[in-house]
Structure prediction request, 141 residues.
Amino acid sequence: MVGFVIATHGKLASGFLDAVKLIIGEQENIGEIGLFEGNDVSEFGLKLEKLIRKEDDGDGVIVFTDLFAASPYNQAALCANRIKDVKIQLITGVNLPMIIEAINARMMGQDIEQITDAAFETAKVGIKNFWDELKSRKPQS
Prediction:
């Protein structure tokens, strides 16, 4: 089973997991870690590495981060380069639809690349502007 790790600033990662539990229920092989003010970034990276290894059962781990080139992302990238015995995919710009889709794809038995692709696609199509959506649904005269 592909594992998931959500690594963000503050409590965002735990909030995502809380929402996942509410929507889908308790999930296996999914962990979260937050970087808080005053945390040592290198220590965060070591904890992240331990979490990645914990969530891996041989099929790899997808690490979801909040901001490109920010500390959680940078530490995840360092882990991806350092950890040679775990297949790691790193996705930034995490959102709830992306995580839900990844879990659904995993439940359907998809591999790490397929799950990553499905998560990206869902993230892209899931961003909507209310007014644009309203206009597109109005009948044309």
User: Anything to note?
Assistant: Helices lie at 12-23, 41-55, 71-82, 96-107, 112-125, 130-137. The two ends are 51 Å apart (CA to CA). The mean pLDDT is 96. The first helix runs from residue 12 to 23.
